[in-house]
Please model this.
Amino acid sequence: MSLREKTLELPRTISETIYLHLKKAIVSGELRPGQRVQEKDIAALFKVSSTPVREAFFRLAAERYLAINARKEVLVQGASIEEVPSFTRSSGPWTCTPPRSSPALSPKGTSACSRR
Model:
């Protein structure tokens, strides 16, 4: 192998490693919609401080995988019925419950969906 053929692979940051791990757990269904995720538990799992965990949480919240409420609770976000087509193209089939009038449903009072 010549030096020119070598590609440079940058190491992942701790925050990115946690982000990818949590995203995979959410998409695979290991973490369910509405399930609470605690910063201290994730920090203990990876043996890191809370800072990279918070960074991963904020990134996942920006992508709507997690919801962070006013009390700083972090919950796995359920997909709304409108989001399902974009998810199925990238990650496989989803199961949806019919719409109900309940404040516990996903945003906008739509039906909640989860991966099979």
In short: The beta strands are 66-68, 74-76, 94-96, 113-115. The longest helix spans residues 14-28.
